[in-house]
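Review form for a predicted model. The reviewer records the input and the model, then writes brief findings.
Reviewer: anonymous (R2)
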Amino acid sequence: MRATVGWIAAQQAPDGALPWSTGAQLDPWDSVEAAMALDTGGAHDRAAAAYRWLAGRQRPDGSWAAEYRDGSETASAAESNHAGYLAVGVWHSWLSTGDEQLVTELWPAVRGGLDLVTRMQLPGGAVGWALRPDGTADDTALLTGNASLFQALRCGTALAGLVGEMQPDWEVAVTDLGAALRTRPDAFADRSRYSMDWYYPVLGGALTGAAATDRLALDWDRFVVPGLGARCVADRPWVTGAETCELALALAAAGRRDAALEQLTAMQHLRHDDGSYWTGLVFADGVRWPVERTTWTAAAVVLAADALSGATTAAGLFTDPAALPTAGMPAIGSLTGGAGTALP
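Model under review:
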C-alpha cells in the first residue's frame, strides 16, 4: 500500500491538482477519492493540497466543472455528485488527521457544494444529475450519484456540527433522499446493467442490515466473476478494479468481511510492478482495457485495504455507515483539548 500511495502522489501536479494520471484529465469526484488515499497513506500535506486546489476552483454557484486539464475547464457541465463529494473527503481528512484548521479552511467550499446539491433536489427526494444551462436541475436522477450524495450530505452534516454551523436543510434533504433510495426505484434512471447501481446504495449507507444483505445477494451472479472481481457492466466480459474494491467496501459495510477480502484479493491481477493498478481486464480475451492506470483505481484499493484492516482512524467511514454522526455534534473548540490540540 505504501507503494500504491507513493504512485498516486507521483501523479500530483506541483500546484496540488490530482488528475487520473500525470497529464491526464481531472474530475472533482475522482480527485477527492485519490486525496483520501493519500491521507490514508500518511501523505497528509499532499491530500490537503489536492483539496485546496479544488476549493480554489469552485464556481460561485458551488459547482465545479466536470473535467479539467492543466488547470483549465475542458468539460463545463456541473454535476451534483461532483459538487457534493468534497464533504466526504474533508470528513475523511478530519478522521485521519484531526486538522481543525484545514476543516475550517475548506468548510466554505463544502457548504457551497452541498447548498447547490439541496437546490438540485427534485420533488420526491432524488437529486438531479446536472445543471441545465439556465441553472435549473436536470430532472434525470442517477442512482449511483444519489447514493454517493447520501453519504456526502451526512458527512457535510457532521462537518457542520464540527464548525458550529448546523444546516437543517441538509438534514431534511438527506432524509428525503434516503427515503427515495430505499423506496422509490422509479425516481432514478434505469442503469441497472451497471454494477455501481447495484452496490452503491449499500456503499453510501442508504441501505443497511438485512436490506443491504438482500440487495448484494440479488445480483451477485450477474456481476461477480469468481477469481477476477466485479464486472463494470453486466453484459460485458470486463472486470474493473475500482468497482471491485467499491463492492468490497459495500460488503464490509454489510458485515460480509470475508467476502470483501475475497474481492480485494481477486482484483490484484490488475496490479502493476510500481504499485499502480490497471483500470480493468477484458477477461474473454485476456486484455487489459482501457490501457491506463489511474489514481482513482489505485485509491479504491487503498480505501478498501484500510477499511478491512482498520489501519487508520478513518477506516470506519465506509465500513460502518450507521456510525456517522448526523446532527448535534459539538463544535470544533469543544472537541479539542485547547487551541491547536487535535482529537487523539
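Findings: The chain has two domains: 1-190, 194-323.
Further findings: The radius of gyration is 19 Å.
Recommendation: see findings above.
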